[in-house]
Specification:
This is DUF559 domain-containing protein. It comes from Brachybacterium vulturis. With about 300 residues, the chain is an alpha+beta fold. It folds into 2 domains: about 140 residues, no CATH class; about 100 residues, 3-Layer(aba) Sandwich (Endonuclease, Chain A), CATH 3.40.960.10. It has 12 helices and 13 strands. The strands form 4 sheets. A 4-stranded mixed β-sheet has the order 4-5-9-6. Strands 10-11-12-13 form a 4-stranded mixed β-sheet, sandwiched between helices. A 3-stranded antiparallel β-sheet has the order 1-3-2. A hairpin with a 3-residue loop joins strand 11 and strand 12. Helix 4 packs antiparallel against helix 5 and helix 6 packs across helix 9. The longest helix is centred in the C-terminal third of the chain and has 16 residues.
Amino acid sequence: MELRGIRHKTLLHADGVSQHAVRRWLANGTMRSVQPWYVTAEAPLGLVRILHFGVRPTCLDAASLHGLWTPPHTGFHVFRPRLLRVGEELRNARAHPVRRMAGKIITLAEEQEIILHGPALRSWPGFDPVPALDLVLTHAAHCLPVEKTAVLFESGLHRRLLSRREADRILASLPQRIRRPLTRVRADAESGTETTVRWWMESRHFPVRPQVLFPDGRRRMDLLVGRSWVIECDGREFHDDPLSYDADRARDLYLTSRGYRVTRLSWEQVFLRWEETQAMLLAILRRGEHLDPPRR
């Protein structure tokens, strides 16, 4: 994945840029060298620092740059060929994480520790500062709990950044213990919160179906648990959208009028207070009311 303001020296030469032009741009400050890269003022500062350490982003951090939903996390996930343990040059190293938010790449204010990733590679996979999505997801599958890995896969599928065939190929390359639970990833989840809640329900064998049609046949529920409990999962990006807020309340009122019980879960409930939220969901499930048909 290419990023504005960062170009590998090999690609710059392949672009037909002469050494004379490179020396001129370096001399006048148009760009600077962070070997083996040339960077300009457009380059995200957090990413430039990571490249300076001789590593590249992967896992959750690279997934965010690719435009996937990412659960909240700490640390800056990176990799380097033939390196699985942090050496002296990376010991205690910290950097400002870089994220894609609302279509823009930003550098976060708080520095994070560097987290080095495997599996080991013999050489760099290419000349881009951010590796291709298949390697990013492979690293994520080896690093993260299965439900967080599922969020990344389902995000890629839903946003059509990843085809089903590509997802299956990545999964086939993983060890069986990692691959087996991930075979149920889907393309119709509309948020990371939805994936997380559905995955939790499925893992505990509760009856849950995603994206079920409303009785009017025109809209879809996020999750239908049993026969009558609808769980709507709010994504973080819709927090401050008044139109989405109004549409969500209209959905809830319609479903309630048709006899469904509706619970709306916020991004914070799922990702920041998940343990507490799980306990309350279990208390509701144990009553068994979700198995009853909608009350009309």
